[in-house]
Design brief:
Elements: E1 5-10, E2 14-19, E3 25-29, E4 32-36, H1 38-62, E5 68-72, E6 79-83, H2 84-94, H3 103-106
Antiparallel strand pairs: 1-2, 2-3, 3-4, 5-6
Helix pairs in contact: 1-2
């Protein structure tokens, strides 16, 4: 059995995967779940990576004690709120390193014939 899902990167709380024959990327981080085309994925990840650098620069220059960062989205009624630690983990998640993970082998099933 083979999987059509390739895991691009994983962290403690997140996973980035891609469907093998489709232009579809999935990001799951804690209780957030996003599906993007390649263009949308690149735009979102670049935005988060740039935001992380800007927040870090702001924090060091202004000795800021901000605990959470509000991240606006295209939908004006939706704003993501992340801590500095969460932004750092997202940056790690989006810094793609080659992973060779077979998702089928990682699944564990318990089966009982009772």
């Amino acid at each position: 059995m083979t999987s059509d899902i390739t895991i691009l990167n994983m962290t403690t709380h997140g996973i980035v995967s891609k469907k093998q024959y489709f232009d579809e990327y999935h990001i799951v981080y804690k209780n957030l779940n996003f599906t993007f085309t390649l263009k949308g994925y690149e735009s979102f990840t670049n935005y988060i990576l740039d935001l992380k650098d800007i927040v870090d620069e702001h924090k060091t220059e202004n000795d800021c004690s901000c605990k959470e960062i509000a991240i606006p989205t295209e939908n004006q009624s939706l704003t993501l709120t992340l801590t500095h630690h969460e932004l750092h983990e997202l940056k790690d998640l989006f810094c793609l390193k080659p992973l060779k993970v077979n998702i089928i082998k990682r699944m564990e099933y318990s089966f009982s014939l009772n």
